[in-house]
């Protein structure tokens, strides 16, 4: 069996391959580890849509829904 990209469970064979690939791409981008722009800690994550914060230094920033561009 060839190694490929990590796929997500939960969608099964529904919705078509194009939608599943888009969902996988967005979900992996959303869940990746990020460093805080202030303190450099890896505890930087999304609180709500467009709101990103660091749990260590309480730094908050507004960004896009699935990623933050600093």
From TrEMBL:
One GO MF term attached to the UniProt entry: large ribosomal subunit rRNA binding
Zinc finger motifs (C4-type), residue ranges: 36-57
Annotated cofactor note: Binds 1 zinc ion per subunit.
One Gene Ontology cellular component: ribosome
One matching Pfam family: Ribosomal_L37ae
Protein's UniProt keywords contain Nucleus: no
Keywords: Metal-binding, Ribonucleoprotein, Ribosomal protein, RNA-binding, rRNA-binding, Zinc, Zinc-finger
PANTHER family associated with the record: 60S RIBOSOMAL PROTEIN L37A, LARGE RIBOSOMAL SUBUNIT PROTEIN EL43
UniProt-recorded name of the protein: Large ribosomal subunit protein eL43
Gene name per UniProt: rpl37ae
């Amino acid at each position: 069996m060839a190694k490929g990209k990590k796929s997500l469970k939960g969608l099964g064979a529904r919705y078509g391959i194009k939608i599943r690939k888009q969902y996988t791409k967005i979900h992996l981008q959303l869940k990746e580890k990020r460093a805080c722009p202030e303190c450099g800690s890896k505890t930087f994550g999304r609180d709500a849509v467009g709101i990103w914060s660091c749990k260590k230094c309480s730094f908050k920033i507004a960004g896009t829904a699935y990623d933050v561009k600093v």
